[in-house]
């Protein structure tokens, strides 16, 4: 709401005010779920929060041009999510074509790309090279939707990393503040924030929980090492009687995920790299490799699931969708289309 209200006022280094083509947040697919969760948030609250963000960025050191480009890129990402696909009569079957080319035109305009046709081509066409010759094949509608969302996620992720990098650059001590004035070593000029993932065990657990719970296991292992193992070692060095402390070493479950060459992630990558990779093959290979592992419990029959005994409890993972989610990368044709932008940030 705030961007919609203020978009005509964004100037930066542009010769004319930025037109973002943003309408109410409920009209953009990436925001609809959020809108349902925040029905009590008024436009006035949004405007105040948005103004506070802009003031904060300015006080940190972001230029008006950088802020304008960030907002423009965010608007483009929202519009990317609104691109829809339908089956093409020319391609036959489920071959995808863009249903709303005017949205692609908007995306191209915001991203400062000359050709919207190249964007449409990149989102709907798989290009391979056979015997030195390019071969084009239209994606299915479902695959085109995956490519579209992968492009949006890649843009958002890289922009987020760039913003963090710029904040670090703006907040670092200037050259005129010497170490002698600060009387501290460079190590003391950093603030570390540990954002601990929450362990997740839902009614249905997929690839997202698989990754989050692995991160939790690694944090728990670090905690065990720092709080228990190293302290016990320190007590032994100082001649203090060994403390009667017991804790669960979760190294076996981490090795189950990360061991090479047959950890679960390696087996999943193996299926993702092959043209005929499947979740069924991944589950079968996991059963064969870890049938006797203390932290792995295969399920009977052809069920695409297995259970892992984490330090916090047993979690059953539904494997359907693992391969596509693990493949979530930016296709080369999309990256090629974006390289012709004149938007400096992009």
TrEMBL record:
<comment type="similarity">
    <text>Belongs to the TRAFAC class myosin-kinesin ATPase superfamily. Myosin family.</text>
</comment>
<dbReference type="GO" id="GO:0004674">
    <property type="term" value="F:protein serine/threonine kinase activity"/>
</dbReference>
<dbReference type="InterPro" id="IPR027417">
    <property type="entry name" value="P-loop_NTPase"/>
</dbReference>
<dbReference type="InterPro" id="IPR052409">
    <property type="entry name" value="Myosin-III_kinase_activity"/>
</dbReference>
<feature type="domain" description="Myosin motor">
    <location>
        <begin position="1"/>
        <end position="346"/>
    </location>
</feature>
<dbReference type="InterPro" id="IPR001609">
    <property type="entry name" value="Myosin_head_motor_dom-like"/>
</dbReference>
<keyword id="KW-0009">Actin-binding</keyword>
<keyword id="KW-0518">Myosin</keyword>
<keyword id="KW-0963">Cytoplasm</keyword>
<keyword id="KW-0206">Cytoskeleton</keyword>
<keyword id="KW-0505">Motor protein</keyword>
<dbReference type="Pfam" id="PF00063">
    <property type="entry name" value="Myosin_head"/>
</dbReference>
<dbReference type="GO" id="GO:0005524">
    <property type="term" value="F:ATP binding"/>
</dbReference>
<dbReference type="GO" id="GO:0042995">
    <property type="term" value="C:cell projection"/>
</dbReference>
<keyword id="KW-0677">Repeat</keyword>
<dbReference type="GO" id="GO:0016459">
    <property type="term" value="C:myosin complex"/>
</dbReference>
<dbReference type="GO" id="GO:0003779">
    <property type="term" value="F:actin binding"/>
</dbReference>
<dbReference type="GO" id="GO:0030832">
    <property type="term" value="P:regulation of actin filament length"/>
</dbReference>
<keyword id="KW-0966">Cell projection</keyword>
<dbReference type="GO" id="GO:0000146">
    <property type="term" value="F:microfilament motor activity"/>
</dbReference>
<protein>
    <submittedName>
        <fullName>Myosin-IIIb</fullName>
    </submittedName>
</protein>
């Amino acid at each position: 709401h705030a961007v919609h209200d203020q978009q005509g006022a964004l100037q930066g280094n542009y010769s004319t005010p930025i037109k973002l083509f943003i309408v109410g947040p409920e009209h953009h697919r990436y925001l609809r779920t959020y809108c349902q969760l925040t029905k009590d948030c008024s436009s006035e609250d949004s405007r105040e929060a948005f103004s506070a963000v802009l003031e904060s960025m300015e006080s940190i050191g972001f230029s008006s041009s950088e802020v304008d480009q960030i907002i423009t890129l965010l608007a483009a990402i929202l519009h990317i999510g609104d691109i829809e696909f339908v089956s093409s009569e020319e391609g036959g079957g489920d071959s995808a074509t863009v249903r709303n080319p005017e949205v692609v035109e908007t995306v191209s305009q915001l991203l400062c790309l000359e050709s919207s046709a190249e964007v449409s081509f990149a989102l709907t066409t798989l290009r391979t090279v056979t015997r030195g010759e390019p071969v084009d094949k239209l994606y299915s509608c479902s695959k085109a939707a995956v490519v579209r969302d992968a492009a949006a996620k890649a843009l958002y992720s890289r922009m987020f990393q760039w913003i963090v990098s710029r904040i670090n650059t703006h907040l670092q001590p200037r050259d005129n503040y010497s170490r002698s004035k600060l009387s501290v070593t460079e190590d003391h000029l950093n603030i570390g924030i540990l954002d601990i993932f929450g362990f997740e065990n839902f009614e249905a657990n997929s690839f997202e929980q698989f990754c989050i719970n692995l991160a939790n296991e690694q944090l728990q292992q670090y905690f065990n090492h720092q709080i228990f193992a190293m302290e016990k070692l320190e007590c032994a060095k100082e001649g203090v009687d060994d403390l009667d402390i017991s804790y669960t070493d979760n190294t076996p479950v981490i090795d189950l995920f990360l061991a090479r060459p047959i950890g679960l992630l390696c087996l999943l990558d193996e299926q993702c790299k092959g043209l005929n990779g499947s979740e069924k093959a991944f589950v079968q290979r996991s059963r064969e490799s870890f049938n006797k592992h203390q932290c792995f419990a295969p399920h009977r029959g052809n069920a695409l699931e297995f259970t892992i005994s984490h330090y916090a409890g047993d979690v059953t993972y539904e494997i359907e969708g693992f391969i596509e989610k693990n493949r979530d990368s930016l296709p080369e044709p999309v990256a090629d289309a974006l390289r012709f932008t004149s938007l400096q940030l992009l």
